[in-house]
Design a protein that fits this description.
Blueprint: E1 34-36, E2 43-44, H1 45-54, E3 72-73, H2 77-82, E4 85-87, E5 91-92, E6 95-96, E7 100-102, H3 106-112, E8 118-120, E9 128-130, H4 134-140, E10 147-148, E11 159-160, H5 162-171, H6 173-323, H7 328-355
Antiparallel strand pairs: 1-2, 1-3, 4-7, 5-6, 8-9, 10-11
Helix pairs in contact: 6-7
């Protein structure tokens, strides 16, 4: 539980600030097991017991306390304090415990759940270890964890706890020496085999060196040929680059010419449309001219007929004037007809002027 060394709860562990009246006057933390001496002062029971062991006076009001006076619990205050919510203050490895709950359950949380609370080693080696480091402690530090004998590489099969290892090293010394001797003989035989194999490998390596020399000469010749091929490739690439540039230039010129042809085709199409329109207008004008010519011919024929009629009338009028002046009314009538004919002739002239 998060308790100061002198007895009280650390105020930081409460989710809400505790009441100032709950502060122990001795340890200055939140009171555990509120107790007093009959006066108004309240302290942690453990803090008060320590102070009274030094001097029989109240640490608050400093009144003398007779020996027969006993420490009394303060009724109701413990329940008020324990009704508050608290948060676990455990931490380790850069992490912090996130548990929150009722104050009385904090100790249960510490003993059974909190990864950052110290607890006794599960193998009972006597160490106090943070719960989240327990497996690491068992693997690396615990004196009760069985570990292989230091002569395991020579064949010793024993696995013992740290406190048993020294005794084993003493009692099994002769066995260990025999294991080392056997291993030494085996190593000597292995060394002879290795030396023999080394001699054979030396001969093989010499043969391989000769073959490597031949291969290196072949590689040198091939490298020379590769260099020649690279030069030819560079020349070809330069030629291809030049041809590519020429092709791009010709493609650009072709595109320009194609654009000009498109413009000319567009202009030609516009000209063709204009010519077709003019042809239609000419045909219409010719048709109109033909119609007007036909009309003029008709008017000319009418004019000729009218002239003939006028001539005949004129002749008759002259004859009538010579015959009789009494026919004035008939002559006047003729004059009117002549006036009409003159109007027609004027219209014909106007039409003729228009045609001309």
């Amino acid at each position: 539980m998060e308790v100061a060394r002198t007895g009280g709860y650390d105020p930081v562990m409460f989710t809400e600030p505790p009441d100032p009246s709950w502060t122990c006057g001795i340890c200055k933390n939140v009171i555990i097991e509120p107790s007093g001496l009959g006066c108004a002062d309240v302290f942690c029971k453990s803090c008060l017991e320590v102070k009274l062991g030094e001097e029989m006076r109240c640490p608050g009001c400093e009144q003398f306390v007779p020996e027969k006076v006993k420490i009394r619990p303060v009724v109701g205050l413990k329940e008020q304090i324990e009704a508050r919510k608290v948060r676990c203050q455990g931490s380790g490895g850069g992490e912090t415990c996130t548990w929150e709950g009722d104050l009385p359950k904090l100790l249960i949380h510490h003993n059974d759940e909190c990864l950052y609370h110290e607890t006794a080693c599960i193998q009972q080696c006597g160490s106090q270890v943070l719960r989240y480091l327990m497996s690491q402690h068992v693997d690396d530090d615990c004196a009760n964890t069985p570990r292989p004998c230091r002569f395991v590489e020579f064949g010793c099969p024993e696995k013992l706890a740290k406190r048993e290892m020294d005794s084993h090293m003493t009692t099994a010394l002769s066995e260990h020496l025999l294991m080392v001797a056997d291993e030494s003989l085996a190593s000597k035989q292995t060394a002879n085999d290795i030396q023999k194999k080394s001699t054979e490998d030396t001969v093989a390596i010499a043969s391989l060196n000769d073959r490597i020399s031949v291969q290196e000469q072949l590689l040198t010749d091939k490298a020379s040929k590769i260099e020649d091929l690279k030069k030819m490739l560079d020349q070809h690439e330069a030629t291809i680059s030049a041809l590519t540039n020429r092709l791009k230039a010709e493609e650009q010129l072709t595109n320009i010419q194609a654009d000009k042809i498109k413009d000319q085709q567009k202009t030609s199409a516009q000209n063709s449309s204009t010519i077709a329109s003019l042809n239609n207008r000419i045909v219409n004008q010719e048709q109109l001219a033909n119609d007007q010519a036909d009309r003029i011919e008709e008017l000319k024929e009418m004019s000729v007929r009218n002239m003939n009629t006028i001539t005949a009338l004129t002749d008759r009028t002259r004859t009538q004037e010579q015959i009789t002046t009494d026919q004035t009314d008939e002559i006047e009538d003729l004059k009117m007809r002549l006036a009409q004919n003159a109007t027609i002739i004027g219209e014909l002239k106007a039409c003729t002027d228009i045609q001309e």
